[in-house]
Structures are given as structure tokens and as C-alpha cells.
Amino acid sequence: MLDLKRLRATPDRPQKIDESYESVTEASFSLQGKVRVQGEAVHHRQKISVGLQIEATVVQACSRCLNSVLSALRLDELLEFRPASAVEDPLTSEVYIYNLEEAMLDLKPYVMGLISNSLTVKPLCRPDCKGLCPKCGQDLNTKLCGCVRESQGDPRFKVLEKLL
Fold first, then answer.
1. Are residues 106 and 142 in the same domain?
2. In terms of Cα–Cα distance, which of 53, 90, 49 is closest to 73?
3. How many domains is the chain built from?
């Protein structure tokens, strides 16, 4: 939590940030162990600049075989917060809006958003992952199944096979 009241009372003086969050589960990923967030925030003319270093261990499902993919994550981010009255067009601006009346600002939703935005869209457990059998669901990385695979492909391309 960022103490906005204290930050506004001491403009241009950095306030240290040292937080950790327990394991978190989101829709497309989970975080193993603690998420470590360090940095500092500075208030200057209603603008709050927050520099963060985020460290976490991310667990995602492999996009081919659904096994867990663990990856260490380290982010260095700079966030800028301004009151709504100081932002001309909030839809095109790359700043976050905060309420001048609030005494505290919870950084956790912003940290989770930064982590989510930095993740691989289609994580793989390994580059040569064979995935799951589309018929029986067997993990083809561990053993082959006895299913017959039809590799007919798109019938519109059959004519092109004659050219090969």
C-alpha cells in the first residue's frame, strides 16, 4: 500500500516501497511463492511517479500439453499516477488515475496487471512439445498412443500435392 497522505505531505521526497504478496491465482496464471515488490514513489505537482522492481515465479499451463510451465520473472517498471482532473484524455494517456481524497493506494492490482501483460501468450514446457492426442488426450511427450492419425489436411490443397 502506498501512503498517499504522507507522500503528498513530503513532495519531491522518495517513499520506499517494500511489499510482498502471498501466492496468487489469476485466470491464466498463478504465482508460486511470494511476489516481491520493491521501489520508490515520488510526489511532484499532483503527479506520483512509482518505480517498481517486481520478482515472482509464474506458473502457466503449456499451450500444447497443459503441463505446468514455471518461469522466473523480473520486471523493472515505471508507473505514473495523476488525478482525474489532470488527465486530458484518459483513454489515450499512459497514466493511471488516482483519487485525491484517498489516503492509501493499493499497488497490488497494478502489479498483477504488469505481470499479466509481461507473460508469454502461448507458453511451452519445451520447444519441441508434442502436445496432446486430439482423439484420446494422451500426453505425447510421455508416450505415443495407438490412435490413427489422419493427416488429410484441407481438401482444397489436394491439387497442390500433384505439383510436388
1. no
2. 53
3. 2
Integer CA distances (angstroms), 105 to 28, 34, 35, in order = 25, 20, 18
Residues 32-47 pLDDT 10s: 888 999 999 998 887 8
> How far is 126 from 131, CA to CA, in rounded Å?
10
Residues 102 and 164 in one domain: no
Residue 124 lies in a domain: no
> Could you tell me the residue range of the domain that residue 150 belongs to?
130-164
Q: Are residues 8 and 87 in the same domain?
A: yes
Give pLDDT tens digits for 123-145. Answer: 999 999 999 998 888 899 998 88
Question: Which helix (H) or strand (E) element contains residue 20?
Answer: strand 15-21
Contact of 83 with 97, CB cutoff 8 Å: yes
Residue 153, pLDDT > 80, answer: no
Report the predicted TM-score, pTM, of the whole model to 2 decimal places. Answer: 0.75
Distances (CA, A) of 164 to 70, 155, 157: 42, 16, 12
Q: Which helix or strand (DSSP H or E) is residue 51 part of?
A: strand 47-61
Cβ partners under 8 Å of residue 83, min gap 6:
46, 97, 98, 99, 100
Per-residue cell: 12: 519531491
